[in-house]
Amino acid sequence: MGIATSQQLTKYYDQYRDTEITFTKDIIRALGLDPRQVYVKCNGGQWPCIINSTSFQHAKIIVGTKGGAFQSLAAKDNPTASIRFCFNEQEGDGIITFLVSSRVAEIRPYMNSKDLVIVTLQFSARPPDDLIEICGKLLEANANAIRRREERVIINEDSKRKLNLAKEECNVIVQSVPRHCVVRDLSFSGARLVLIGLSQFLSGKEAILRLEFNEPSEIVSIKGTIVSADLIQGRKDICIASVKFEESSLPLSYKMHLNEYLTSVRKTQLTATEQIEQQKAAQQQAQATIQQVQAPQAQQVASESAPEPQEQA
Question: Which residues partner with 185 through β-bridges?
Answer without folding.
Answer: 154, 192
